[in-house]
Amino acid sequence: MKTISILPHLALFVALAMCSQQADKIYHIEGTTVERSAYSCLKEFTGEKEGKFFTEQLIRDLANGNEITPDHYEPAQQYKFHWKENGVIHFIGFEAMQTASELHIQQNQAQAQNSNPLIDYAKMTYRDKTPEEQLRLNRLLDEQLDKSEEPSASSTSDKSLQENVTAMETMAYVPLESGTDYAVYNRKSFSLYVVLGDALLTLNAQVGPYGSVDESRSIELAKKLADKLSELCN
Predict the structure, then answer these.
(1) Is the model more confident about 147 or about 57?
(2) Which residues form the signal peptide (predicted)?
(3) Closest by alpha carbon to 185, among 134, 231, 222, 132?
(4) What's this model's pTM, rounded to 2 decimal places?
(5) pLDDT tens-digit profile of 19-36?
(6) Which of 200, 196, 193, 197 has the alpha carbon at shortest distance from 176?
(7) Does the structure show a pLDDT above 80 at 175?
(8) What secondary structure does DSSP assign to 117-177, as a single string?
(9) Of 124, 99, 106, residue with least CA distance to 202
C-alpha cells in the first residue's frame, strides 16, 4: 500500500506544507554557521553509526529495573526497545537524526547570536495544523497516491489510512518541559521530537499496546526520554 510507505515521511510532507510560512523566518545563507559545541558529540553518529548512541544502557533507568528487549533494524538505523512494567508493555525508540545543514536551515547573521533555527523549525513543523494547512497536506498526500503505480493506491483502505495520517496533525502535539533545547510529543502517533543543539531527533514513546494506549503515561515516558537524551553530552 502506497500510503503505508508515506507514513514514515509524514514530517517531510508537513514541512513542505509549512514551507511558505517558514520562508520569511528562516534564511539560508552560504558560509553562515553557528557553533553549538554543547551537543557536538552527536555529530559523530552519522551514516552507519547513526542512532548507535541509543543503547540499553542509555535507557535502562526508564525501565525501572524491568527486563529490556531490543528490537533493532540497523539497515534503517532504527533502534527500539520494549519492556513490561506491572504487566503493561512500554515501547521507546530512535527513528532519525537530522542536522540544520541537512535540513538546509541556517541562521542569518542577525539571528546567529540569539536563537537556534532548529527550534523555530520544530515549532513550525510539529504543531497542530489549521484547517487550511490540513487541506494543503491532504492535497500533497493525494498527489503522492496519484503518482503511485500500485493498484491499491486509490483503494478505500489507503484513503482511510490517509485520513488517519492527517488526523494525527490535529489536537495532537504536547510541548514538553525538559532539559533539552526543545521537545514536543505527538500523543496520536506517539512520536517525540527533540532538539539538541544542532541535532533534531525523531523518537517514539508509548505505554500500552495499540488500541489501548495510556496517554498520560506515554507523555510521562516521553518526557523522561527527552530528559535522558539531554544528558548525552554531559
Answers:
(1) 57
(2) 1-23
(3) 222
(4) 0.79
(5) 444 433 433 323 333 344
(6) 193
(7) yes
(8) HHHHHHHHHSSPPPHHHHHHHHHHHHHHHHH--SGGGGSHHHHHHHHHHHHTTSS-EEE--
(9) 99
- 94 in Cβ contact with 79 (< 8 Å): yes
CA distances from 211 to 14, 208, 220 (A): 25, 8, 19
Locate the domains of the chain by residue range.
36-103+172-234
Cα distances from 202 to residues 93, 119, 129, 156, in angstroms, run 9, 14, 19, 30
Question: Is residue 219 left, alpha or beta, with left meaning phi > 0 and alpha meaning psi from -120 to 50?
Answer: alpha
The pLDDT value recorded for residue 43 is: 81
Q: Are 78 and 93 in contact (CB under 8 A)?
A: yes
- Residues 11, 202 contacting (CB under 8 angstroms): yes
Q: Are 205 and 185 in contact (CB under 8 A)?
A: yes
- What angle do helix axes 156-167 and 131-147 make, rounded to 10 degrees? 150
CA 111 to CA 95: how far, in whole Å?
A: 30
25 vs 90: CA distance, rounded Å: 38
HSE toward the beta carbon, residue 38, CA cutoff 13 A? 14
Amino acid identity for residue 76 in this structure = A
Buried-state track 140-164, b at ≥16 Cβ within 10 A, e below 16: bbeebbeebeeeebeeeebeebbee
